[in-house]
Amino acid sequence: MNRFFSEALRKIRTEKGLSQQALADKMFVTRPTIARWESGIRLPDAVMISRLAKVLDTNIDLLITAAKRDESPNVIMVDDRKLILTGGLPVLAEVMPHATVTGFTDAGEAVEYAKTNRVSLAFLDIELRNTNGLDLCRALLEINPRTNVIFLTAYADYSLDAWNTGASGFMLKPITPEGVTEQLEKLRYPFWTGGDNA
User: Model-level pTM?
Assistant: First the structure.
């Protein structure tokens, strides 16, 4: 079962305002074929993925990447206060049960982790001990431009600076399951988390 691809396809199709039948008509396949792709039971071949990208007017790389992924996504949270990590990590794990969730109090360690592990989503505190979340965001995006970044802060004043980094979202502390779920719906590069948003 390929839930990464099915989630990406369903999200793109609904954003384009197409029903399964409408997409099937444009693809010259049956509606059950689309349903099987979106349920993860079947995976389209390269020709069909290329056709899907054209019909949906989307980046073919997004669909190919989703089709190839079979590992659980890596989600990190970086905050220099251990108390915030202790409270936040269980919330992330609850909302994204399929993800590997890892916390860091040191930005340098997070960067080293990102060099050897493809990070799908990073929750970053803006005020960090030896750096700031804005610079950390830029470093993570340099390693992998498809990393989704959501900034965490207790201060709304940072929101404008945060948007200039290419981040996907911005959350005020404390982290809540509802807040995380809302942010997951707005990711630039969606991925299957195993939660209710899937």
Answer: 0.64
